[in-house]
Write a structure and sequence with these properties.
By secondary structure, the protein is mainly β. Helices cover 12% and strands 34% of the residues. It has a single domain, classed as Jelly Rolls (Sandwich), CATH 2.60.120. It contains 6 helices and 20 strands.
């Protein structure tokens, strides 16, 4: 991997998944098949790698497992297959995080890119008017925060290499797909042009909206240190990411949030 995440975990390609060191806990991966994400693609009948990506929810150092459960925090890891989905990049389904029974909020997510090139696409709602829409381009070591209630998807921008990343989540995580599927996807579709570059095509099932393509913010208001693994930052201060399970702690920061 291009960026060390702070604990010993390695993505694998055949089969798609992860290997864990003896000091690290982690589950059997969940694979997302191409058929399972077709409804969120611009061309649902496309060909592409299958499985599309593998998810290992709840990974970390064994010494921290009890504390993570107590704090209600969960660290997830995801690795994508290289390649394309027709003329679209390999990507996740568009979704919104369910409201957590702990906080009564839809919960945020803190991404960290380990290898490959990512675009974290997000829009304020999954309704007809999606609100502000952002495509945040992220490289290994970059952190991107998705705020509560926003619809989003993670996109691999380089088909020649797998995308791998980790993320802090609420342990009671869950996904809502209904609004996105009702619109046959998110408000903007990424496609590869003839030069192999990402272009964006508006989804006509939403009202008119602007897409802002940008680099990640520094998230200083969340106490995040640039260039240091977010898992290591948790080790140094186990309260640093409490806003993930208690978004109300950063209520002011979510107003007019810019990722």
């Amino acid at each position: 991997m291009k960026f060390y995440p702070g604990f010993d975990i390695l993505p694998t390609n055949q089969p798609l998944g992860f290997e864990y060191a003896s000091t690290v806990f982690g589950p059997e991966v969940e694979n997302r098949t191409l058929d399972s994400i077709r409804k969120s693609l611009r061309n649902p009948d496309c060909l592409g790698p299958d499985p599309v990506y593998s998810i290992a929810m709840d990974v970390g150092k064994k010494e921290h497992l009890a504390q993570l459960k107590q704090l209600h925090l969960l660290y997830g890891a995801v690795t994508y297959a290289a390649g394309r989905l027709g003329n679209e990049p390999v990507r996740s389904q568009g979704h919104i995080h369910k409201v957590s029974p702990l906080s009564g909020w839809s919960t945020p997510e803190v991404y960290e890119i380990w290898s490959g090139k990512a675009i974290i696409y997000m829009q304020e709602t999954g309704k007809d008017n999606p609100g502000r829409c952002f495509a945040v381009v992220a490289n290994p070591g970059d952190v991107v925060i998705v705020p509560p209630y926003w619809a989003h998807a993670t996109i691999s921008a380089d088909p020649k290499q797998p995308l791998t990343f980790g993320a802090w989540c609420d342990r009671a995580y869950g996904f809502e797909y209904d609004d996105v599927r009702a619109h046959s996807g998110l408000a903007w579709f990424p496609i590869f042009n003839r030069n192999g570059e990402i272009e964006w095509v508006k989804n006509p099932n939403y009202t008119e909206c602007e897409l802002i393509v940008k680099s990640p913010s520094d998230y200083a208001e969340f106490g995040i240190e640039k260039g240091k693994p977010i898992y290591s930052q948790f080790e140094e201060d186990q309260n640093r990411f409490l806003f993930v399970v208690h978004p109300e702690l950063k209520a002011d920061a979510w107003n007019h949030f810019i990722p």
